[in-house]
Amino acid sequence: MPEAPSLVRQVQEQWGRIINITSFVGQAGNFGQANFAASKGGIIAFTKTVALEMAKHNITVNAIAPGFTETEMLAQVPENIREQIIARVPMGRFGKPEEIARAVVFLAAEGDYITGQQINVNGGVYM
């Protein structure tokens, strides 16, 4: 894969952060979601590959893998199915968008020596 020349030129011996958003489904799979799981698994593999390629430029590349999160999409799921999903989550609730955002902020601000990783923010639904 060719390097991202504009990002590399911008950092010029400084640093950079690339933070991808994937899903725990890219690691664990989920019934009826082969296409979604494959695309999210691809983001994880892409993250690791780009991390290897960009490390020499002091650019870290990581992914956040949320679990079931309170979004408009999840709000469309029937209540009885939502209850079944929550029963699978050890913390007993859905994540909040701001909890996902805090993980992104952490990587952006403090992730100097973290690269090629996916951080699970999922209430324990996949460990």
Task: Describe, in plain words, how this protein is organized in 3D.
The chain has 127 residues and is of the alpha/beta class. It has one domain (18-121): NAD(P)-binding Rossmann-like Domain (Rossmann fold, 3-Layer(aba) Sandwich), CATH 3.40.50.720. It is 47% helix and 14% strand. The protein has six helices and three strands; from the N terminus they run αβααβαααβ. The chain has helices spanning 5-11, 25-28, 34-54, 72-75, 79-88, 97-110, and strands spanning 16-21, 59-66, 118-121. Strands 1-2-3 form a three-stranded parallel β-sheet, sandwiched between helices. The two termini are 31 Å apart.
Structure described in brief:
This protein has 127 residues and is an alpha/beta fold. It has helices spanning 5-11, 25-28, 34-54, 72-75, 79-88, 97-110, and strands spanning 16-21, 59-66, 118-121.
What is the topology?
Elements: H1 5-11, E1 16-21, H2 25-28, H3 34-54, E2 59-66, H4 72-75, H5 79-88, H6 97-110, E3 118-121
Parallel strand pairs: 1-2, 2-3
Protein name: Enoyl-(Acyl carrier protein) reductase
Pfam families: adh_short_C2
Organism: Marinobacter subterrani
Q: Going by CATH, what is the homologous superfamily?
A: NAD(P)-binding Rossmann-like Domain
What is the rounded distance between the termini? 31 Å
Spans of at least 5 consecutive residues whose pLDDT stays below 50 are: none
The assigned structural class equals: alpha/beta
Q: How many β-strand runs?
A: 3
CATH class: Alpha Beta
Q: Would you give the CATH topology?
A: Rossmann fold
Please indicate the count of domains: 1
Features:
127 residues; Rossmann fold; 3-stranded parallel β-sheet
